[in-house]
Amino acid sequence: ANNAIKNLREVTREENMRNRAINKNNTSGHIGVFQHKSGKWVAEIRVSGKSIYLGIYPNIEDAIAARQAAEVEYGFHENHGRNST
Question: Measured in whole angstroms, how far is the alpha carbon of residue 10 from the centre of its chain?
Fold first, then answer.
């Protein structure tokens, strides 16, 4: 909420996109996790314009864990996927 120079960081557009809030139409509550038509949960992540499939899981907790591990591996910001409000 405070755009003072000392609070800003210089990043590329790609780096800034790693700090996005969750979309309003998200149904799982987590970026990159959605329910497959089979009822299982799919995890994926988008890096450098390419979608990386992380797997399909029988429960949402495993899919979320896979996505979070990938976020750490690919250097996503800690606020990625959090609501901005």
Answer: 21
Beta-carbon count within 10 A of 31 CB: 21
Its pTM surpasses 0.90: no
What is the C-alpha separation between 4 and 53, in angstroms, rounded? Answer: 38
3-state secondary structure the chain: CCCCHHHCCCCCHHHHHCCCCCCCCCCCCCCCEEECCCCCEEEEEEECCEEEEEEEECCHHHHHHHHHHHHHHCCCCCCCCCCCC
Read off the pLDDT of residues 24-41 as tens digits, 9 standing for 90 and up.
888 898 889 999 999 999
C-alpha distances out from residue 13 to 19, 28, 36, 39, 65, Å:
10, 26, 30, 35, 26
Q: For residue range 61-83, list pLDDT tens digits in order.
A: 999 999 999 999 988 877 666 66
